[in-house]
């Protein structure tokens, strides 16, 4: 299955970093959204998106709210979600896992860490 990523972050720079990291580990197919609201619009209009990488802290709809919205949508609830955020407290990680993110990366990260987390998610799918 060809992966098409949705990269969600309100920071253009951070979206660029994630996109460049994806390219460096061999993933070329992705679209971007600047917040959870835009991400939901893209998910609803593009059935080929099958992996979400999202930040937590964003205006409009946060990453956590995005995760909950995806998980409550019958058609999209099985899409893998990787949260990439500065929120590294144990409580934050637990809250994200309870919302059913598949994996969690605390910024900053390397392309190798991104690859490992994506591979872990795909292996358990």
UniProtKB/TrEMBL annotation:
Matching entries from PROSITE patterns are given as: RESPONSE_REGULATORY (PS50110)
Q: Where are the transmembrane segments?
A: none
Annotated positions of the 4-aspartylphosphate modification: 55
Q: Which SUPFAM superfamilies match?
A: CheY-like
Q: A Pfam family for this UniProt protein?
A: Response_reg
Q: What is this protein called?
A: Chemotaxis CheY-like receiver protein
Q: Which GO terms describe its biological process?
A: phosphorelay signal transduction system
Can you tell which superkingdom this protein's organism belongs to? Answer: Bacteria
Supply the alphabetized keyword list. Answer: Phosphoprotein
Q: Which Gene3D superfamilies match?
A: 3.40.50.2300
Tell me where in this chain the Response regulatory domain is found.
Answer: 4-122
